[in-house]
From TrEMBL:
PANTHER family reported in the protein's UniProt record: EXODEOXYRIBONUCLEASE 7 SMALL SUBUNIT
Source taxonomy: Bacteria, Bacillati, Bacillota, Clostridia, Lachnospirales
A GO MF label: exodeoxyribonuclease VII activity
Gene, per the UniProt record: xseB
Keywords: Coiled coil, Cytoplasm, Exonuclease, Hydrolase, Nuclease
Secretion signal, residue range per the UniProt entry: none
Stated name of the protein: Exodeoxyribonuclease 7 small subunit
Entry function: Bidirectionally degrades single-stranded DNA into large acid-insoluble oligonucleotides, which are then degraded further into small acid-soluble oligonucleotides.
Complexes and interactors: Heterooligomer composed of large and small subunits.
């Protein structure tokens, strides 16, 4: 689940990771899984959250701010 179509988390888009994360959460909420599988899904979910956070941080660093004179500055 952490890899989609042979892609690593780094290669997936935020939307793809969020979709996988939603599926993981649904599986955990069903309650029909073993404790071991719950732990596995939890760790996969945490890896997905870390990948999302990393991607968001990269985007934030690339954002530009406009100052009062309309000049661009890095965020």
């Amino acid at each position: 689940m952490a890899e989609k179509k042979g892609q690593s988390l780094e290669e997936q888009s935020l939307e793809e990771i969020f979709s996988d994360l939603e599926q993981t959460i649904k599986k955990m909420e069903e309650g029909e899984i073993s404790l071991e599988e719950s732990f596995q899904l939890y760790h996969q979910g945490m890896d997905m959250l870390k990948a999302c956070n990393s991607k968001i941080n990269k985007v934030e660093k690339k954002m530009l701010l406009l100052d009062e004179e309309g000049e661009e500055h890095e965020f």
